[in-house]
Amino acid sequence: MFSKFCRVYARFCFGACELALAGMLILVIVEVFRRYVLSDPTQSSLEITEYLLVSISILPLAVILQLDRHVSVDTLTNRLSPRTQAILKFICRLITAAFALVVFYFGAEMSIDALMKDARSSSLLAFPLGVAYGLIPIGFLSLGLTAIDETITTFKQIGNTPEKNHG
């Protein structure tokens, strides 16, 4: 049940990331057309693009972890036994979960504070910062829950993994 919730929540965040990417693509195309064809650029496209870029970098973190696509150097770990590799993966997932949940906590605190104070960007758009900051806890909660789920799964696999050396 927990694993399914983590996968659904991560997929929701990934879908929001895909929408943000499509939105950013459309915004850049419209802005290029307005700037270079109509000579009438918008004032807020850069700020909106920045918020979309942040969402593109934070929201898919859990799916990237699920697919094991984060950047890693496995030159040394490939030479270890499968059991040792599983133990190291367990430790890494545990550290990832702790880090993500700390960022979630402080990101949520920052977002709620900005919403309560009705903090806005200092640009012409005056975008509510609580909404922009809200991307941080949404993405990192997804990453944290996924890391917890993978930590549990990896822990269960450690007992079933042979000690024989890989290479």
Strand-helix topology:
Blueprint: H1 2-36, H2 45-58, H3 61-66, H4 82-116, H5 129-133, H6 135-158
Helix pairs in contact: 1-2, 1-6, 4-6
Number of domains: 1
Uncertain segments are: none
Rg estimate, integer Å = 20 Å
Shape call: elongated
Summarize the structure.
It contains 6 helices and no strands.
What are the salient characteristics of this protein?
167 residues; mainly alpha; 6 helices
What does this structure look like?
By secondary structure, the protein is mainly alpha-helical. It has one domain. The chain has helices at residues 2-36, 45-58, 61-66, 82-116, 129-133, 135-158. Helix 1 packs antiparallel against helix 2 (45-58), helix 1 (2-36) packs antiparallel against helix 6 (135-158) and helix 4 (82-116) runs antiparallel to helix 6. The longest helix is centred in the N-terminal third of the chain and has 35 residues, at 2-36. The chain is elongated and about 65 Å long.
